[in-house]
Design a protein that fits this description.
heterodimer; A: mainly alpha; Fumarate Reductase Cytochrome B subunit; two-stranded parallel ribbon; 63% helix; B: alpha+beta; Catalase HpII,  Chain A, domain 1; peroxidase (chain B); EC 1.11.1.- (chain B); iron (chain B); catalase activity (chain B)
Chain lengths: 192, 359
């Protein structure tokens, strides 16, 4: 669904940047904790699970908002292939954001681990104990994380291309927004 | 929209630099670049090396085991030290596993006499406590780098079954802390049964009870049953599954019981090194009784697919400053993930049962 305003809804922009920080932190925490037998392992693990569930809750808030408020149209002169890549990459980003916490939760369930958010708060298991399933999900958690990071790099590069090279207002639509021309609050045009 | 060529090449460089910076930081976080870290895989590889190769489908340490079920009856006294629900008066179901150390699931009990007991204690409110204990109050090494070095140095020579002195000597010279453990083992009676061994927490933990007072605690399960120790001079004469079959036969007749003794640290006690014993008088609380009334092969029981990670703790018990705990957690996890992907294989006890049935 496209949107009349040239910018994403302000709430969606806030969620985007909050989640950008959370997801990047999560990916760094994840690869960091599995790399070490040092005390950082337990410290990072204690952060990893509640942050993962926080991301899941945020994406469950964000996805309906995104569907309801839509996205501003991409510039007319953008090649069709790039428009399609933009749409596809956004779908994949949403899938990864929602998928990673679910894979993690399912993986711990299949491994028979308690899914501890805090010392005293645990989530129920969403799968029965099954070691083969655990092994598969554990592998998937790593593979999807690495693909997710690659996707974020591509997304960031594309956003910066729009902002620094094409200067077509696409980056602005997710940051500060477009200045409104004139005094009429109904007027909603881009000024780029 | 005309592109300004000079500006855009600067912009391209900036975007490239940002991507390279992020990839570099990610690689550093993952340990792909930068200082060498000891990973869980380093530990499992050292254990496999010590055991003469990997045994797919089994735990990388304590591979030979027997499942059991029973109950823990708390008398309420433990609540003086910890808020954990498991210490409140009541009876709680228990699953667990007896094992001997080493990576060989079919090892002979005479060659491998290091007893261990692992437990999962759950209270009805969903709290869970996993314990992995040994029959020695102290551990040979205090950190994971030394543990890996120990595995490499103490690889048994297939001919003698003993470590190569040429490898052990420099290791012991570099690790004087191992002497306490060696001295203990030289003196200690080797329990003649899983049921007559005392099982120790190995590491210290932090217990937090009412008024939020936190104390360092080590614990031990002390057996009610007693019996003669193994004859250390003739261990090689023991049948392959002697300890396991003894426990199966014993449990068919009578349940085995242990008292959970919580030992509170004195101010001078070392809490971050499992190599150092706590000596002298200590405040000790008997928190309740563990009763084991049934044993099962790993094929039939509930213990095989459990990672007895000693860092899975209820509220009221937390990790101490002992760095071995994080290392145990990560190494157990790496072992668990490896065997999960390899699929389970028959246990020694399971093999015995299959042979018996075929007769």
């Amino acid at each position: 669904m496209s949107r009349h305003s040239p910018d994403f809804h302000p709430a969606l922009r806030a969620l985007h940047w909050l989640m950008a920080a959370a997801v990047l932190a999560m990916l760094f925490i994840g690869v960091g904790m599995v790399s070490t037998t040092g005390t950082a392992y337990v410290t990072l693990l204690a952060l990893h699970r509640p942050l993962g569930i926080a991301i899941l809750l945020l994406v469950l808030l964000r996805l309906p908002l995104r569907i309801m408020t839509g996205a501003p149209a991409l510039p007319d002169d953008l090649p069709r292939i790039q428009k399609r890549a933009a749409v596809a990459s956004h779908i994949l980003l949403y899938l990864a954001m929602a998928g990673m916490p679910f894979i993690g939760w399912a993986m711990l369930s299949a491994g028979g681990y308690p899914v501890l958010l805090t010392k005293s708060m645990a989530l129920p298991a969403i799968l029965p104990r099954d070691l083969a399933l655990y092994a598969f999900l554990r592998q998937a958690h790593t593979v999807v994380a690495l693909l997710f990071f690659a996707l974020i790099l591509a997304h960031l590069s594309a956003a910066l291309m729009h902002g620094l090279i094409r200067r077509d207002g696409v980056l602005r639509s997710m940051t500060v927004g477009h200045r409104r021309a004139g005094v009429s609050p109904k007027q909603d045009d881009a000024d780029d | 929209m005309p592109l300004k060529k000079r500006a855009s090449s600067g912009a391209f460089a900036l975007i490239g630099a940002i991507v390279v910076l992020l990839v570099g930081a990610f690689a550093w976080a993952a340990g792909w670049i930068g200082p060498r870290r000891i990973s869980g895989g380093d530990v499992t590889r050292a254990l496999e090396y010590n055991g003469g190769g990997s045994k797919p489908g089994y735990r990388r340490a304590h591979a030979k085991g027997l499942c059991f079920t029973g109950s823990f009856t708390a008398n309420g006294a433990g609540s003086a030290l910890s808020d954990a629900s498991i210490f409140k008066s009541g009876r709680y179901p228990v699953i667990g596993r007896f094992s001997v150390a080493g990576g060989n699931p079919l090892a002979s009990d005479g060659r491998n006499v290091f007893h261990s007991m692992a437990l999962v204690l759950k209270s009805p409110d969903g709290q869970e406590w996993r314990l992995a204990m040994d029959h020695t109050p102290i551990f040979p090494v205090a950190d994971i780098a030394s543990f890996i070095a120990l595995q490499r140095a103490s690889k048994p020579d297939p001919a003698t079954g003993k470590p190569d002195p040429a490898a052990m000597k420099p290791f012991l010279a570099a690790h004087p802390e191992v002497k306490a453990f060696q001295d203990y083992m030289a003196k200690a009676v080797l329990p003649g049964s899983f049921a007559t061994a005392t099982y120790y927490s190995i590491n210290a933990f932090r217990f937090t009870g009412d008024r939020d007072v936190t104390r360092f605690v080590r614990w031990q399960f002390e057996p009610e049953a007693s019996g003669p120790g193994l004859d250390k001079k003739h261990l090689e004469l023991l049948p392959r599954d002697y300890l396991f079959n003894e426990m199966i036969a014993r449990t068919a007749k009578v349940p085995s019981r242990w008292h959970l003794k919580l030992v509170v640290a004195n101010p001078a006690d070392v809490t971050d090194k499992a190599t150092v014993a706590w000596t002298g008088p200590h405040r000790t609380i008997d928190a309740g009784t563990l009763a084991i009334d049934a044993v099962q092969s790993e094929e039939a029981g509930a213990c095989r697919d459990v990672n007895f990670d000693p860092t899975i703790l209820p509220p009221g018990i937390a990790l101490s400053d002992d760095p071995l705990l994080a290392a145990r957690s990560k190494a157990y996890s790496s072992s668990f993930t490896r065997r999960a992907s390899e699929g389970a294989h028959p246990s020694a006890v399971g093999q015995d049962l299959t042979k018996e049935r075929a007769r």
